[in-house]
Write a structure and sequence with these properties.
Layout (H helix, E strand, L loop, with lengths): L14 E6 L11 E6 L5 E8 L6 E4 L2 E4 L7 E7 L1 E8 L6 E9 L6 E7 L2 E5 L5 E5 L4
Parallel strand pairs: 3-9
Antiparallel strand pairs: 1-2, 3-6, 4-5, 4-7, 7-8, 8-11, 9-10
Length: 138
């Protein structure tokens, strides 16, 4: 004897399930489940370039991702579209050089270049991607 309660198959994490009860589906005994995939999120290359000779640290969403020292003064990362909290400091975490948000993937820009030093930040690629919070060094 079949149970009136059927368990639907589990959807994958990237799928959206839509339940439709339309007149055209009324001849079915059970609801029709349509599955659509979400569009792939755009990826943007972000390059950090440290100007000058001072040591620094770059934090993204509170995690240190880049520490320019003597020889390695530039590094590329691939980010998904979205907004990220960026904090650029000297060797001491409390010596904040620049702090703000990086909002990428809003347009057709494939690469964003962030030049930074103890004097501030300059952006190339998408000039509206950088939203500063505090830009003055104390």
């Amino acid at each position: 004897m079949a149970s009136p309660f059927l368990l639907a198959t589990m959807a994958e994490a990237g799928q959206i399930i839509i339940y439709r009860d339309s007149p055209r589906d009324s001849h079915h005994r059970y609801p029709v489940h349509e599955r659509r995939r979400r569009p792939a999120r755009k990826r943007v290359t972000v390059e950090f370039i440290a100007q000058g000779s001072e040591w620094a640290n770059v934090y993204v969403d509170g995690r240190r991702i880049f520490s320019p020292r003597n020889a390695n003064r530039r590094k590329q990362f691939t980010f998904r579209e979205g907004a990220y909290e960026i904090k650029i400091t000297g060797t001491d975490y409390f010596d904040v050089w620049a702090e703000g948000y990086l909002d990428i993937g809003r347009d057709d820009t494939n690469i964003v270049v962030i030049n930074f030093s103890d004097r501030g930040v300059r952006i190339a690629g998408d000039p509206y991607a950088w939203i500063p919070v505090a830009a003055q060094r104390r």
